[in-house]
């Protein structure tokens, strides 16, 4: 028996890697200093894993930015145009990660995409016609040797060839199959070199296997692995999967000449059933039993019960996915022990694996007893009033009346907005000043009155500016908010906030998701003060601005003792109360953002409705179902990748939706038309994710393209997301162009 993990957090206990790397970016330290600091951090992390009793320790799970980008460098999937620049290897690496503009050239950053159903983003490599796949990198070897010098014989990790091909981009004219032989040869070279250095095993991460696979994709997988495993160069090969089960390839997988297979028993709904159908005696099952995504203690009894039903002879206990997705340690939090005892971050999860392993080997009775006790006592009391409120909900609570078509008429009459009404998504630039004032207020250096006066003045300025420029529906600007989830969480019961619970999101950036500890209710009105203030300053409608229940849930660490659906309903009721208060305060247009709705769509199409949309969409409807017909509900989503779920989006029954469409060339418009989308739409007319100001005529052109697909009576004109990360100058310039383009388009209707 033994234990392992799939990967460990990289940023460091106190995000040291982030701060050191940022110093390097600011040229305050040299590349050598950065590399030395990273080396120290790796040593520290390996030693922690070792001291916690983990027996198989991975290496090369570290990254200066992203493991997928590391793999691209390992296999030479780096554009020739970048390789030819006079940049060091590290400079090339960061150039592709973040872009480079300087005297040595101009490199655009590679795109970033969400890593499966997590909030981590990976860099998407691009295979070009000129790409010559070969072994080109050395990081995996260096880090193996580095650990070896510390007396730790690690199992190097690298993205597997199937996932690497599936998740990369391809230039027109080349396809996955073109690179199979080159990749197989390069991976085998990696095997050979590692074997030569003394490694005995390698871990190939293949999370792409947990998705629905077509016949062609399965064939690609088998083709790659039949070739690759024909010569393992003496290494034992572990194919590691996570984020779900491998039902489409399980039988193929167990028949391949691999030595270990890593399966996810936490998120993999069918994993146990698959394994119970038979697992080969000559292979090792890496059983992912400790949740790598959540922050709660493992329930040992439940885990042991699952493991007892696993027929495999050789089992290594591991996490369900890399620990990259949880914070570092609970040791630096100052929650009281009664709370803290329920949390396990990365370091504590190592101890859980060790405990479970010991218990299975007839030891660890004490640990088991303590764990049983933890789960035997009630962690948090239920809010009886809230539960009664939820139990009393009926279909009618999820249905807004009158139906949309009738409301649309009523609202056109009530608001008398011009055709193609203009608006923005909510936030205006969070300038240095805005952030400094907020910080000073939090530190107590600024009184409530002073802070409020600052916010009021800022809102006044922007309301005036929006009126002058000619916007039809205004916003207050969200200057009082730090983050669209934390701001609400701080005003909800049942929420906890960690001090150091950072999780890597992209590059060196971390997010600190709040923790849902207990039943959620609204403690007090949250947004009414500033929304009604802003409305009092103008005769134009000002949109109230809320975060929706699904997004609040998806960007928090959820409870495990009640379902995600139930937690979402609780949040929905809290936000519903806020909606009704805003309405009562005279705010007639209310936007409920669901920026993260698309992100947690299950990886398998067959799970989309049953596991998610069937409760997520009604939860949103619950929030706004009882507003008056002439209160207009808007929503906003950050991705336009909802082409496949357009009827579900219409089912939110919002009156208006705005979304990010400018970067996807408005492709989604065809689908909206095909599906007869009813909700009024504002497909963002310019990309706010770049400081670039649209050229003259650009927005006009986009509006024309929209009007070709969507009836003009349904079209709104807005940017594609909130403007808080932008500078004031580019924001104003772009928005003036937007309003003028809308006015111009109106005249041609
Ligand atoms: N209303 C929010 C804003 O404008 C929406 C943010 C988002 O979509 N991520 O900032
Ligand atoms: Zn957005």
Automatic annotation (TrEMBL):
The keyword Repeat applies. Pathway: Amino-acid biosynthesis; L-methionine biosynthesis via de novo pathway; L-methionine from L-homocysteine (MetE route): step 1/1. Residues 420-743 form the Cobalamin-independent methionine synthase MetE C-terminal/archaeal domain. The active site is at 689 (proton donor). It holds the Pfam family Meth_synt_1. Residues 3-311 form the Cobalamin-independent methionine synthase MetE N-terminal domain. The keyword S-adenosyl-L-methionine does not apply. It comes from the Bacteria. Zn(2+) 1 binds at residues 636, 638, 660, 721. InterPro entries: Cbl-indep_Met_Synth_N, Cobalamin-indep_Met_synthase, Met_Synth_C/arc, UROD/MetE-like_sf. GO terms for biological process: methionine biosynthetic process; methylation. L-methionine binds at residues 425-427, 478, 593. Binds 2 Zn(2+) ions per subunit. One of its GO terms (molecular function) is zinc ion binding. L-homocysteine binds at residues 425-427, 478, 593. SUPFAM superfamilies: UROD/MetE-like. Gene3D superfamilies: 3.20.20.210. Keywords: Amino-acid biosynthesis, Metal-binding, Methionine biosynthesis, Methyltransferase, Repeat, Transferase, Zinc. Zn(2+) binds at residues 636, 638, 660, 721. Its cofactor is Zn(2+). Catalyzes the transfer of a methyl group from 5-methyltetrahydrofolate to homocysteine resulting in methionine formation. HAMAP family: Meth_synth. Belongs to the vitamin-B12 independent methionine synthase family. This is 5-methyltetrahydropteroyltriglutamate--homocysteine methyltransferase. It comes from Streptococcus lactarius. The lineage of its organism: Bacteria, Bacillati, Bacillota, Bacilli, Lactobacillales.
